Amino acid sequence: MLAPPRASEVSAPADVTGLLLSRYGGQVPRYTSYPTAAQFGPEVGADLHGEWLSQVSPHKPVSVYAHIPFCARLCWFCGCNTRVVNSKYSLAGYLAVLRAEAALVEQRLPAGVWANALHLGGGTPNLLSRDDLNALFDIVRHVFKLAPGAEVAAELDPASLTREWVRAAAFHGLSRASLGVQDLSPHVQAAVNRRESFEVVASSVAWLREVQVRSINLDLMYGLPCQTSADVVATLDQVLRLQPERIALFGYAHVPWMKAHQKLIDAKDLPGLSERFDQSAIAAEHLARAGYVAIGLDHFALPHDELAVATREGRLHRNFQGYTTDACKTLIGLGASSISSFAQGYAQNASTELDWRRRVADGVLPTARGRVVTEDDRFRGQIIERLMCDFAVDLEQACADHGRGLDRLAEEIGRLEAIIADGLAEFDGRRLAVTRRGRPFVRSVAAVFDRYLQPSVARHAPAV
């Protein structure tokens, strides 16, 4: 397993770093899928989605994702599909439609499909009342058999989390939790409209420990308005006292043309590309000194955590929730905007809640778009996933796995020459490996194998 690069290894000398950022710091996908969601289109609708559901094997486990698109507050940095809600009726009404959607899914699935993972995302799933949470698990269990020891994960907002909610979720098997923290500096919190104290986060962690949730993740961000490297380090120093098993360190993506509420952030307050890079590198070094293992591009875990073990054993995967140990080939999404993944391709529900509700009320799967995956997509997806997870890939073996010779990648290998010359990668004629200095730019290396990529400010976030 490769050690995380030190800040000095990726950022010095300054003139070289600036040159690399100018060449490879542009807009590229995060590669949580391939093809990416930017390539989804109307070719996948309710009929094809239903056909794929009918072909799911009852002998292999699936993963289930339920999207809860509600929050108690509007965080200006947020890129998720969510809205602020103050009415419990809205939550109960949403679950009623979710139940109807699940029934449509059940009609098409073979009998006896079982799930070994359930992820509650949002939004803020902990806005659900205890009764609503019970109803949600009743919906899932009516359609799927949850395997013994199935991983149950939830994304949580510490500001609205309660001990009672944690205990209710634990009753249903909550085993992993992700708490949104972002930054604990008051001036940064004010700049993104997300105020919460360290004490609130600490209480949330304590409640999760009480019910023996085995893996707690804290989401942090760099590149936020008014944020400095000192702010990032100060936040790390506080949260490390809680000893979370995992830390996710995401770069803020400022896309106000896609998320109108981000217009509330003054772009002049955003750190520049070089400062973003420094914040990321300094945080990675800080976490390494604290004993955390670097996981791919932006995750860190204690050595005993399942994510770190999977990294050591070459079993790390990447999906719409980021880095994961989940090896399921089928993901079934429920709720507005949720994405399902099958061997045949991707199917995404209508993104707006009203459209999603209308389609379900019409008695059809609320599929709005998706992508049929070709054999070439699977080939390239394998290469991209291994680069994103392992920082290395055996290109010759990947070609052999898909019945083709290495000559099929001649064009891509040619495009790698500049990357190799800049010291970001090495290639021995078979194995491509991203160097320590190149790891912050791994998305740009992976993009070499993306045949659909058309770099666009309006579609993707900066590479670092």
TrEMBL record:
It is found in: Cytoplasm. It is an enzyme of class 1 (oxidoreductase). GO terms for biological process: protoporphyrinogen IX biosynthetic process. Its EC number is 1.3.98.3. SUPFAM superfamilies: Radical SAM enzymes. It catalyses: coproporphyrinogen III + 2 S-adenosyl-L-methionine = protoporphyrinogen IX + 2 5'-deoxyadenosine + 2 L-methionine + 2 CO2. S-adenosyl-L-methionine 2 binds at F77, C78, G79, G123, T124, Q182, R194, D219, A253. PANTHER family: COPROPORPHYRINIGEN III OXIDASE, OXYGEN-INDEPENDENT COPROPORPHYRINOGEN III OXIDASE. Monomer. This is Coproporphyrinogen-III oxidase. It comes from Phenylobacterium montanum.
